[in-house]
Every structure is written in structure tokens, then in C-alpha cells.
Amino acid sequence: MQTRKKKVILLYVILMLLLVCMTAGCSKQEESSEPNEPSGNDSSITLVIGAYSVAKDAVGELLPKFQEQWKAKTGQTVNFQESYEASGTQARAIVGGFEADVALLAMESDIDKLVKADLVTTDWKQTPNKGMITRSIVVLGTRAGNPLGIRDFQDLTKPGVKVLYPNPKTSGGAQWDINAIYGAGLKLSEEKEGKKDPAAAKTFLEQVHRNVESLDKSGRSSMAAFEYGVGDVIVTYENELLARIAKGVKYDIVVPKNTILIENPAVVVDKYADKHGNRELAEAFVAYLRTPEAQHIFAKHGFRSVDPDVFAETESTFPTPEGLFDINYLGGWDEVRTTLYSKRGVWYQVLAGL
Questions:
Q1: What distance in Å separates the CA atoms of residue 338 and residue 346, rounded to the nearest whole number?
Q2: Could you give the CA distance from residue 99 to residue 302 in angstroms, rounded to a whole number?
Q3: What is the pLDDT of residue 235?
Q4: What sections of 267-329 are H helices per DSSP?
Q5: Residue 143 CA to chain centroid, in angstroms?
Q6: pTM recorded for the entire structure
Q7: How far apart are the C-alpha atoms of 214 and 108, rounded to whole Å?
Q8: In the chain, which ranges are E strands?
Q9: Left if phi > 0, otherwise alpha if psi is -120 to 50, otherwise beta: which for 131?
Q10: Residue 42: its pLDDT value, please?
Q11: In degrees, to the nearest 5, what angle opens at C-alpha 91 toward C-alphas 88 and 93?
């Protein structure tokens, strides 16, 4: 009886050992098949993009092309989470916790907000074109046929001319607009007096602002209001008008003699890209934005290319105004923030009627 019991136990142990071996074998087979059948986590990745509203159409065309390239290179499918807002609003959202891996904003000073929040490193401009991916200029848009005969910023000061531009508190585009008008005032004072006269430039900005019909939150919102029929003239990006005209909307573009060169940056938001494990992907996307393919797409949507060869190919579309100036003519962004947009700056004095 005792011997029979021992045999049963031995048989049970043998069966258990066989079962363990078989299970281990199956596990090894499953493990060996994993490289050929990637899990969902390995085969897809998400890139979070926070952009200013005016770039939406161009970015929408760029994303599938980058997606295709990344898939061919790595085998991964890139999914995109996109947000489009006025540039200042977008920058504040990212600072406030919107975890964008990449930021495309309207101006350098909005990137500076991310730097001050320790989201982007201070060396972000040590990249091609100092971190810029597109350029444009501030122009005037009128109704088809230019019925009021608008020729320059000076015409915006005339009685009865209804002007549109967005609110510089929320919109990077609006700050470019204000910079252009104020800078044009400085240029006019130089022509008359032989030197820049900030008081004359402030008066000029006041005269234009008196005719402003509404202050929308973004350049895209301002453009939508103009298309709805609000105002006679819109102060806006050249690329906004070119893009709308390309879609069949009937506008005239007036290029002022003295206007500002707009430069738009894109950066990897270091803190969030590292947190998400997306640095390689984010850096590749920003690098892609500078490629000839991407630059041609930007040009198609009315932006001036930062690539010299692409700009040379498309230059006939983009006239150079006689008095074109850049942000350095106004002293650079630090000076502009203090002079124009501080609590006691020129813009807020104009707004308050001081």
C-alpha cells in the first residue's frame, strides 16, 4: 500500500514537471514572436502640438507628410494631439500645464514665456535661423477693388475708415500689427525730422487706433470677422490674406511702404517632451519644419520661407517693401515689451486714451 502511494506521488510530480516545461516552452515561443508582432505601445506614439491659430492650415498639411516619413524611418505611427489658439493664449496654456511637446508660436517673446517657466532651455535660438521656421510681413487687406483707395498706414487715420486688428494682450499677430504701425510712425518721423521721434510714433498709433472697429482674440478671429463683413481694412499677416485669396476669397493686398518683418519660431518644449519620452520625435518634427518640402508647403500657404533656396524660388510672390524693418529697429523684443506692452507702455496708454 505504501509503495503504491509513493508511485502515485512520483507520477504526480513527473506530470507537474512536464506541465511546467510545456508552459515555459510556450512562453519562450511567445517571447520570440514579439519582435515580429509589436505591441500597440511600440507601434504608435503621440506628439502633442501647441500652435498659434494662423499656422493651422499649413500645419494640417504638414502632419501627414511627417507621419509618413517617420513611419518609413522607424515603423512607428505618429498620432497627433493638436491645439490652435492665439499665440499669447497658447503660450500661457503651455505654462499653465498644457503639456505640448512642440510649440509653434507667433513670436520670440512668447517662447520667452516658456523659457521663464523652465519649460524650454535658454539656448533654443542656437538652431538654424535662430529658431525661426517662417517669415511674413504686416500688410493691409481691403475689400475687392480697394474701394476706399487705401495705399498705406497713413490712410488708416482718415475719418470714417473702419480698421480691424486683434488684441495684443492675447494675440502675437496683434503685437506684430502694433509694432508695424508704431515702427511706421518712427520711420515717418525720421523722414521728416532726421531722427526717430517716439512721441510722434505714439500719436500716429493713436490716430490709427481711433478707427479700430473691434479687437478680436487672435489673428484668425480677426480675419473671420473681416470675412463676415466687419470693417473696411484689416491689419494682418501677409500669409493670412494670400491663403484666403488662394481659396477664392476676393480681397486686395496693400503692402505699406514701411512695415515690419515677422519671424515665427518653433521649439521643442523640453520639459514635456522629456516627460513623455518624446524628445527624438519632437526634435525630428521641428527639424522637418525646416526642410525644403515643409518650407514649400509653408510658402503655398503664404509664408515667406526661411530656406534661402525656397525663398528664391517663390520670391516673385513676396514683394519687399522699400522701408521694411525688423524687430531690431524697435530695439529688440526686450525693449518692445518695456516700451509698448508694459503696464505703462505706449500701447496701454493708447488704449486708455492717455
A1: 9
A2: 29
A3: 96
A4: 270-276, 279-288, 292-300, 308-314
A5: 27
A6: 0.83
A7: 26
A8: 44-52, 77-85, 102-104, 132-143, 163-164, 212-214, 233-237, 251-254, 261-268, 304-305
A9: left
A10: 57
A11: 110
Q: Which of 150, 176, 174 is nearest to 260 (CA)?
A: 176
The sign one gets for the Cα dihedral 64, 67, 72, 76 is negative
Instruction: Quote the pLDDT of residue 170.
Output: 79
**Per-residue pLDDT, 34:** 31
Of 140, 142, 120, 143, nearest to 184 by C-alpha is 140
Q: Alpha-carbon distance 155 to 153, whole Å?
A: 5
- Spatial contact of 157 and 207, defined as CB atoms under 8 Å apart: yes
Q: Are 256 and 180 in contact (CB under 8 A)?
A: yes
DSSP 76: P
CA angle 217, 247, 298 (to 5 degrees): 70
The answer to whether the beta carbons of residues 84 and 218 sit under 8 Å apart is: no
Contacts of 182 (CB under 8 A, 6+ apart): 201, 202, 204, 205, 330, 340, 346
CA distance 169 to 87: 10
pLDDT of residue 354: 66
Average pLDDT by stretches of 10, the chain with 354 residues: 45 44 36 32 86 93 97 96 93 97 95 97 94 97 96 96 90 89 97 95 96 87 90 94 89 96 97 97 98 96 96 93 96 94 92 79
Nearest-angstrom CA–CA distance, 300 and 295: 9
Q: How many residues does the chain have?
A: 354
